[in-house]
C-alpha cells in the first residue's frame, strides 16, 4: 500500500488513539484528520478536541450521533430481538458501522485517501470497522496501526508517548485494571482482572448499574409505548429514540438491571470474557417481546426467532452493510407493521418483567381462550379431526416399526 497523504482517524482522545495520531504523522508523514463520535459514552468530548489541536491534527470533527445511532442502528436491531450466543445485546458491535460510515463520509469531504482505527489485531472491532468501510467505499485504504507497529506492550506505548510529548493520564502509567468501551446502549469491560473466567468480576467493574442486592426494595412500574416495533414513549410521554433509551438506562441502572458476565466466541476464533451492562436495552428487549406476544402471528414470531441468531451473528461479525443483513432486515421490518401498543413492566432487583400488555392491533381473543362459556366462538369437537390428521403420519410410522419388529 502506498503511503497515504491524508488519513481520517477514529479518535477518542485517549492514550492509544493519541499515540496512533502521532505515529501516523511520523510513520507516513501524512496529514491526520480526527473524528470523534458522541454515541452517548458519557464522557466530555471537549478534551479530545484540545488534545487533537495540540497534536497538530489538520482538521477535527466531533459529532453528536446519539439520535442517529439509536434510531437507525439500535432500534432496527431490537426489532429482531437480536442476541448473540443467546445472551449478548451487541452494544459494541452495533456502534461500529455508524463510526465507519462517518469515517468514510468525512474522508470523502476532506479529500483523504485513507481511514484509520485503534482496534487491535486480536479482536472483532478491526473486522467490523474495515468490512463496513470497504462496503461503503471499495477503494478506501484502511490503516490498522496495531497490526503494523512494534509498540506491542503498555511499556512501549508509554515510552513512545513520553518521547513525543503526548500527555499521559496518571492512571495510565501502570497496567489498567481492565479495558472499557461505552456508548448509549451499553458498557463493555474486558481484560486484566477479568481475563480468568473462573474468577467473579469485582463489583467496581460495573459502572452503570447498582448491584441488584442494593437496588430499591420497592418495585417500580413503567409503561412503554410502541409503534411499528419501535419504542416511542415512557409512561405516556413521547420521546426521541436517544432520549427514551437514556431514560431506560437510568431506570435500569437504578434497579440493577442488565448485567451480563459472558464468555463469547470472537469472530477471529478465540474466546474472550466480557462484562456487559445494558440496562435500558434489557428493559427494551423485554418490552418488545411483550408487545409482540399479542400483536405478532405465531408463524411470523417463530420464523423471526429462527432468523434471529443468523441476524445477530451478522452484526457481531461486522456485516451490517451486507446484502444478507439488509434482506433479513426487510423481513423483520415487515413483521413489525402491527407491533403497536403498550407494555407494562415491573422493575425490581435486577429484573425487568412484563406484567401487562394491550393494543388495538392485538390478536389475543379472550372469547376463544376463556375457560368459561365461549358462546360458540370455538367448537371443541373440531380438535378431534385436527389431532387425527396430525397423528396420521405418526401412526403409520409406529405401525411400520411394530411390523418390522414382529
Structure keywords:
406 residues; alpha/beta; Rossmann fold; Argininosuccinate synthetase, chain A, domain 2; five-stranded parallel β-sheet; five-stranded antiparallel β-sheet; 14 strands; 41% helix; ATP-binding; argininosuccinate synthase activity; AS_cat/multimer_dom_body; arginine biosynthesis; ligase
What's the short version?
With 406 residues, the chain is an alpha/beta fold. The chain is built from 12 helices and 14 strands. Helix content is 41%, strand content 19%.
Question: Can you walk me through this structure?
Answer:
- By secondary structure, the protein is an alpha/beta fold.
- The chain has two domains: 6-66 and 91-176, HUPs (Rossmann fold, 3-Layer(aba) Sandwich); 180-296 and 338-358, Argininosuccinate synthetase, chain A, domain 2 (Alpha-Beta Complex).
- It has twelve helices and 14 strands.
- It has helices spanning 15-28, 46-54, 66-79, 96-110, 125-136, 154-163, 241-254, 279-295, 298-316, 323-335, 366-369, 382-405; strands at 6-10, 31-38, 59-64, 114-116, 141-143, 179-182, 187-190, 220-227, 230-234, 237-238, 259-265, 271-277, 341-348, 351-358.
- α4 crosses α5 (125-136) and α9 runs antiparallel to α10.
- The longest helix has 24 residues, at 382-405.
- The radius of gyration is 25 Å and the shape is elongated.
